Amino acid sequence: MTRPPTAVQRRVIDAAEPVTGRLRGTPAQLAALVRRGLAFRHPRPPHDHFLTPAGHRIREAPPEPAGEPAVGSPRADTGVFAARVGGDEEPGASGPARAREVHSAWQGLLELRRMTNPDGAVDRPCAWERTHLVRAAALALEAAGHRPAEPDAEGYRVRATPQPDAVAVHGPDGATLTACAVTLEKAGWQTGAHTEPRSRARYLLASPRRV
């Protein structure tokens, strides 16, 4: 079993930039994370360090408790940005603060594309998006101003599918689905309209474009 990161390494991982996974730390701390396969040093200047998929998984998991956990103690909020996939969950923060947070996350994702796509392209999804399909598609939609479905409001819903490289986007009407398709295609996704065989409800099947 792989031993967990040290407390110092965990703090560096938790402090990574949302979405991009860009790290800040001493050369020794960053080198230790690289040796453990939790980070990589980008080959192009300024040679910043980023979380690997394994590093992202550690950041997204709750930290191991030190000693005996207190009975009934709540899980601490990690503060990691999460795009809204839409659904019956409680509505989160809204307004200018949320808009700034979403804009920052989208700009960070574009930078991650530039840094990790072999040709530096920003108009095509990167490896991180291909391993976080639902979150990536939801971020593209929210960043473009689409409204996620909430208990008291209609909007888009992004869901995983049996296909390993595609997500389903549901909406309350054809106009919403058409607008979502336009946004996703501009963001480097390919989409197709489909119909549920039983309910006859329309939905989009979207997957990251590779070329």
UniProtKB/TrEMBL annotation:
Region (Disordered): 41-74
Domain of life where this protein originates: Bacteria
Protein name (database record): Uncharacterized protein
Origin species: Streptomyces phaeofaciens
Source lineage: Bacteria, Bacillati, Actinomycetota, Actinomycetes, Kitasatosporales
